[in-house]
Amino acid sequence: MTQPPVVKVTGLVKIYQTGGLPVPAVRGVDLVVEAGEFVAIMGPSGSGKSTFVHMLGGLETRTSGEIWLDGKRADTLSESAWAVLRRQKVGFVFQFLNLVTNMTVADNVELPALLGGASPRQARERREYLLSELGLEERAAAAPGRLSGGEQQRVALARALANHPRLLLADEPTGNLDSRNTRDVLKLLGKVHRQGQTIVLVTHDARVASMADRVVSILDGQIVDDAPIARAPRRPVGTAGDIVELHG
Amino acid sequence: MRVIGGSGRAEVRWIRADLRARRGQALLTIVAVAGIVTALITAATLLEDGTNPWRGLFERGRGAHVWIHTKGVPDVAALRGLGGVTDIAGPYRSAPATLAERGRKVPIALQESTAELPPVARPLLREGRWLDAGNPEGVVVEQSFARALGLRPGSPFPVTGLNGATHTLVVAGLAESGDQGFYPEWTPGLAWTLAPTLTMVEPAPGRTETVTGLRLADAAYTDIVVQQAVITLRNQVQRVSTWREVRASMELDNRLLGLLLALFGLAGLVAAALALANAAGGRILTQLRDIATLKSLGFTRGQVIRMLVAEHGTLGLAGIALGLVAGRLITTYALSGTVVVPLSPGPTLAIAAGTALVVLVAVWLPAWRGGVTPPIPAAPASPPGGRLSRLARLALLVRLPPALVLGARDAFTRPATAALTVAGVAVPMMMITIGLGCWATLDDFIRHPEQVGQAAALSVRPGDLTAQEALGRAMADPDVVTAYPGVELDALVPWQTRTVRTRALGLSGDPYPFPVVEGRMFRDRGEAVAGQGLLDLLGVRIGDRVRMTIGGTPLIVKIVGRVIEPEQDGEVLSFGIDSLAAKDATPPQFYSLVLRPGADPGEVRRRLESRSLEVDQAVNPADRLAVIRLIIVALVAVLALIGLANLLTASALGLRDHLLDLAVLKAMGLTPRQVMATLVTGTGLLVTAGAVLGGAAGASLSKGVIDLEGRSSGVGAGIGRAPTPGMLAAAVLVAIGASLLVALIPARRAARAQVPVTAR
């Protein structure tokens, strides 16, 4: 029995109405992402890649086309149903402003678990585990504003993974980080991926994209290239699950 | 179910974090709402208690609905057997006596009581001690009577019985009672003594009477029970009084007070709604980005709305709860002298539910606004583009400093928010101004009593003297300028089952200086002036003729003018004493004395009293409305707090909108001081606009509003005063000054802070 693809998109179109004029951002994208894949979506600014990923997570509505997440049709869902789907199956990391500013780091990471119905104890245990894996346990009580950019992105990653999502969507997660922090975050993403996490990552940085199994290039709202990156075979893809032993 | 419980936890977690992050602001919201509820509760309690103190007194003392005066001891068992009677008070013996007080003799009724407070018709001890068998000279005096005579616990109480023997008793305590009206409306004054003391003062059993009180299961049975009692006791009954008479004698003519309090209550509610909407709206606007993040995490729109309503609503409800407690405490302790019974559950519930509704409505709109935020945190809500406003262009034109111009531009980048801020300051300011107008009106009452019909500060009654002697003695005083002869009579009005007060004062040719505000003063016999209340009661207008039966004589008078009439809810007709039949007019009951300007009425009163004249000092309406001043002070404080809360919201919003501009401004070469000036100008301009607007609106409205209140209270239009220009200017300046100070602190911090240029 084959698993359904984590993401299946057919004929996805997004047209913004700006001042009465239709401005197409995404024009007919088809894409399939299998479980365990790490797909990088590349393209210059304004190519529609962010819009595309936002639509995958239901943050923006599509104009036409179909979105299937984990074998279920998602594009017809209401805003609330999308919200529920997100909390169960999708983790988001944005370029910045990922964290709820008035909550501590600990609260930020616990929030998705609580939202998903975990007990406060389970949420705390999960948070402690994730933060310790990311080496941030002593920043648990800090306000997000007190963290460096790299730390903030790592916390955002921890929060995105809190509910064991089927799909991790990352929109330029390293966009405003220096090279060292970029490397740290990418290393984390790589490790998470090796545990079987399906990832769709948007970037305009070729070095970042090179981490992925497959690079999809978008230009003017259309896929112009879709190619796997050849590399030494890795151990087979497992099921999506905990990130374990991120250290070492 | 588990999912719901879990997501509920997430909401609670967020609310807790948000409240922790803005403790001060949250506290301010709570205090503002609590202040308003406290003011409402206090006002309603004062109103309820003020309009009818009888209810509280009667219930507290388990008063008797019917009092039967008989010659001898009645058949108590038979009375108890009457249908509807639940309890019996007494029978008590009662004896008439005279109290010798500063040269004049005041009739009193001594009533027997027990050393232990009776269970029914129990006097409510207010000061001193109750009767004590170990101290037989002690009497307990009814409080309003004691106040009128200046008696305190420990004062001597020289009583003369009908046989002429004087006994020096001592006031042991003061008590109130729901079974006896207030002095002087209800005479004679009442004093309770022990049975042996009563026997000592009035040894002859034939000269005492017996009073027996009947407490009924339902006040509606009163008439039937009275009939049955009269039949049962046959010829024994001398007189019967019921609770209705007592209540009527206690009802005060303070409809004006009630209306003013209601006005302030309404103002408070509007202000509360505004404060909450502003605070919640401002807060939510500053956290739209966080809300977007929450939605990207999987919070639904409904959850966000619920969360925000819960957070801000909880603050409001906490404020209401605090206000209810504070209101109860204030009315119980701080106002224990004036308030007898706490507010009854009905109005309390109405206030709580009303404010709760206002709170939820005021909070729901901004919460909904937060709920529909798009879930993309990377797109912060940015203020619409910075086109220079007309005002800013004008500022540039007259070459104002750049900081002012930029600030002026900033002030209006969000027109809706700017309007809300202006309104948030203007409405409290307007209410404060109207409050100051009320204050000025009260001051005016005191400064110009002649404008509310109290040109005469004192009135003398001849008492034992002849009218001529009394007039001579009064005029002999150097401070007395004029004396107008006067008579007050009750008149039966056609089509009305009740009587109204008529006042014959001065002569038609030499009238008392009534404050005529409409029409003209009476000049001839048969002409009269009336208060608004009387015009409304009879449905007549100036120029109409009315027929009345005054003192048994039918009289037709033409109403030629309307006067300001603070007495009897304005239901008073005034005319010259020569319009009355001679039998009613001579001798005059009293002379109203107009004093030399600057004379101290209390001083003159003492002098006249030392010449054995009975002198009454006019009670200025401002004194009866004195409680309004307390309310005004409280309301101004609460409103100032609300204005401040609105201002904090506005300046927080301003900062948020311009945080990114700050970097640009600095890059352009503005010094921190100029940046600060820009920020302060942004809020300051709105605040100044609000304060000036509110002040102007209040000043122009206050006279009209107070006149409206005066009109519907019967006193009549024409009493309203706008706040004095000095008072108004001071209020506006204080408001603006305080606002600028408050705006300065965050602006200063922002101007000094290192602004990250990245986050957009």
From TrEMBL, chain A:
Taking every annotated instance into account, which residue ranges of this chain make up the domain ABC transporter? 7-245
A Pfam family (short name) is ABC_tran
InterPro entries to which the protein is assigned, alphabetical? AAA+_ATPase, ABC_transporter-like_ATP-bd, ABC_transporter-like_CS, ABC_transpr_LolD-like, MacB-like_ATP-bd, P-loop_NTPase
Q: Which UniProt keywords apply?
A: ATP-binding, Nucleotide-binding, Transport
Q: Does the keyword Ubl conjugation apply?
A: no
Q: Which GO terms describe its molecular function?
A: ATP binding; ATP hydrolysis activity; transmembrane transporter activity
Q: What GO cellular-component annotations does this UniProt entry give? A: membrane protein complex; plasma membrane
Name of this protein: ABC transporter ATP-binding protein
Q: What is the lineage of its organism?
A: Bacteria, Bacillati, Actinomycetota, Actinomycetes, Streptosporangiales
